[in-house]
Structure formats: structure tokens, C-alpha cells
Amino acid sequence: MGWEEFEQMERQQLKERREGKLCRALGVTLPGETTEQLDRIGEHDRRRTEQGLVPLIDRDGTIFYKHIDDLCRLDMNSRTVAKRVVVA
Fold it and tell me: What is the CA radius of gyration of the chain?
């Protein structure tokens, strides 16, 4: 995947998350979770997306956020790793 495709995909995913896709995906609570916890996770995600922030993971596994306009080709791997961690 080239840089332009990657950037376009990132912007689309950010838009979807801003529109509440993560909140809807979280849906039903699992044993030990509360609705309030899921709501809080969804709200934090929505606030970050409204600011244009996307998560990345550095080499030592630390999650950090970067504005989508500041992403560069060198961030592609860190961003891909972050997506895997968020999904898992």
C-alpha cells in the first residue's frame, strides 16, 4: 500500500470513529465490564478523533497520539501496529 492510499484510509477511519463507529462496535458489555466503562472509552476515542489524533505505538510498546496531518511515511508501521493492538 502506498502513502496516498494509507493516508486516505486513515482519514476515512478517523471520520468513522468521529461518527461513533467505535462506540457502536463496543456494543454489549462483557463479564466484568460496565456500560459506564464502555461509554467512557467511546467518549475518549471520540474526543481524540475530534482533535484529529490517531494512536501509534513506538518500539517499546508505548501508545502515543499524533495529529493526522503530522503523519508521515515513517509512521505507517507504528500506526498499523496500533490498529492491531486496539482490535485485539
Answer: 14
